[in-house]
Amino acid sequence: MASQNIYILGIESSCDDTAASVIHNGNILSNVIASQKIHEEYGGVVPELASRAHQQNIVPVVDQALKKAGITKSQLHAIAFTRGPGLMGSLLVGTSFAKSLAFGLNIPLIDVNHMQAHILAHFINEAGYKKPPFPFLAMTISGGHTQIVKVSDYFDMEVIGETIDDAVGEAYDKSGKILGLGYPAGPEIDKRAQLGNPKAFKFTKPKVDGLNFSFSGLKTAILYFIQKETKANPNFIEENINDICASIQYTIIGILIDKLKLASKQTGIKHIAIGGGVSANSGIRDALKKGEQKFGWTTYVPKFEFTTDNAAMIAIVGYLKYLESDYASFNVTASARLKI
């Protein structure tokens, strides 16, 4: 099958990045992302502004993806797009564009679940990166999601643990806001954590049964701790910023690794893959590497550019679905709360 020259265009517009990618038989030819800086002023994504920016960005981004891939739109075999989950206004822009383009070119339309795409990004052909064998456990960690998924095949996935309140990325961003750091705060906390003492301050881990997560209590604990300390010493944050960041990161990573340990023990699966924006975090990557020695895991971390929201992961799912002739109807609608 792969000997056929299959070109798939992937379009991603679930949040605030407009992205397009062209894949050829599992190899990425282009991966273009237009980020929206405007949200930094608001300390979070403003949905109305996001969808407007997608409308401005989508045509130039797709055009650039085709040019970088060195192909014309008439060579495409199918258009894959993010159907959900995500921000409704943002998803509608990508969905409408993908439908129109596929209809105009008279080629199949393929709908993609954004969370499945984070997991299947591991199957992009990339030198130096190994692909996990089935079954494996995938932990998807991002600004909007925290899940542990048992992956038995490309499209046979079962969510066995998820957050009951906030996502891990939100815990990073809210902690950053309390500390007066910019948005998104994750990369900044990660950078400072490497300079601090992770055991300087102790935060209690939330007690949640089974494989589910909770981060709202941790956010509150951090807020109260900072309020108490700054009351006693107004320069507390300034004087201890690296230690505070290291302690927050140490606690968050501890929560994630504890649940992975439990999931691995319960399922007997020792192949562990991570995906989603927070998987770019150096502390999490280090903790997984240690897990290989400690628990006999084999861990899989995608290339950095495939961890955050991107269209290459949408394109690879489009390619895998194309091989199965698994196409969407032109009546398909975007779904903000699409489940795996």
Automatic annotation (TrEMBL):
Required for the formation of a threonylcarbamoyl group on adenosine at position 37 (t(6)A37) in tRNAs that read codons beginning with adenine. Is involved in the transfer of the threonylcarbamoyl moiety of threonylcarbamoyl-AMP (TC-AMP) to the N6 group of A37, together with TsaE and TsaB. TsaD likely plays a direct catalytic role in this reaction. Its cofactor is Fe(2+). It catalyses: L-threonylcarbamoyladenylate + adenosine(37) in tRNA = N(6)-L-threonylcarbamoyladenosine(37) in tRNA + AMP + H(+). Its main location: cytoplasm. GO terms for molecular function: iron ion binding; tRNA N(6)-L-threonylcarbamoyladenine synthase activity. Substrate binds at T140, I141, S142, G143, G144, D173, G186, D190, N281. Its EC number is 2.3.1.234. It holds the Pfam family TsaD. Binds 1 Fe(2+) ion per subunit. It comes from Mangrovimonas spongiae. GO terms for cellular component: cytoplasm. GO terms for biological process: tRNA threonylcarbamoyladenosine modification. Transmembrane segments: none annotated. PANTHER family: TRNA N6-ADENOSINE THREONYLCARBAMOYLTRANSFERASE, TRNA N6-ADENOSINE THREONYLCARBAMOYLTRANSFERASE, MITOCHONDRIAL. Keywords: Acyltransferase, Cytoplasm, Iron, Metal-binding, Transferase, tRNA processing. Residues 27-315 form the Gcp-like domain. Fe cation binds at H114, H118, D309. It is found in: Cytoplasm. It is an enzyme of class 2 (transferase). It comes from the Bacteria. HAMAP family: TsaD (MF_01445). This is tRNA N6-adenosine threonylcarbamoyltransferase. InterPro entries: ATPase_NBD (IPR043129), Gcp-like_dom (IPR000905), KAE1/TsaD (IPR017861), Peptidase_M22_CS (IPR017860), TsaD (IPR022450). CDD domains: ASKHA_NBD_TsaD_bac (cd24133). Belongs to the KAE1 / TsaD family. The gene is tsaD.
